[in-house]
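User: Hey, my collaborator sent me this sequence without any context and asked if I could get a structure. I don't really work with proteins. Can you help?
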Amino acid sequence: MSDGLTAPVAPDSDAHPRLTRAQRRAQERVDEHRPVVPASTALQASLGAAMAAAVAVAADTHVLAITAVVALLGLAIALGWSYLLAAPSPRGTFVVILLGSLACVVAATVSDTDPLLRWLPSALAGTLLAAFAHQLVRSDGRSRLTESVATSVSAVAVVASGACMIPLVYLPPLVWLVAAGMGGVLASIVAELAARWDRVKPLVVLLAIILGAGAGALVSMGDPELPLARLALLGAGSAALSHVIRRALSVVPAALTYKRGVWAIAAAGVLFPGVVVYVVARLLVS
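Assistant: No problem. I've predicted the 3D structure and written it out in structure-token form, which is a compact way to encode the shape of the chain:
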């Protein structure tokens, strides 16, 4: 009870206990020794490898095949992304991501002449408008509005990056570049699995890049006309990007809680390097 001179002191909350200085230092020491590599489970690694292989095989089959594979990976991201990042309105976010992903996949498929991605910017712009429209129809007070928009747009941006690989099927010599990019993805998965050993853990990024370059160089042997150096660089870049996005997403608490989150992380690791594959392809034909 207050005596009128002294302000009442609020009781300590059990939900947010105060830590002593010694406890804070102990917690900092624990944080310093936590692994900085993705917590790649056997499920996540096997899913990523299977998805990368499916993209590479589909690219060498038919445009409809790779379109279907990329669309399915976009569906995996739509199902898990909002729960992975704890979006404030998961159902509406799912709808925005799903529609935006489908729009990007269709936009990347319809044009078989240059510019191959002429409709992709329109699909991305439409997704941004849909994300804002979603906020207008929310009935929960629109809390964490910026986070909600960023969740939707970031997911569709990843799918759009993967969709960049679709029109390369219209240029048969460049299909090998998709294989090189997916080889880099597989190399990054191998590097992350090897990082389970403490001696390898500090070198996981370098190992992923080296293995990715080797995978790209190996793929270049399938067509002597393709420059070995550029495919090795493509493999290294794809491995680095794939590792980076899995590393960023795997530290999210929900990454190991929801299986849909594991699917979304695996799919993002395969689709994210797609824009690098497209850029290298355009440099080869320019």
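In plain terms: The chain is about 70% helix and 0% strand. You can pass these tokens on to your collaborator as they are.
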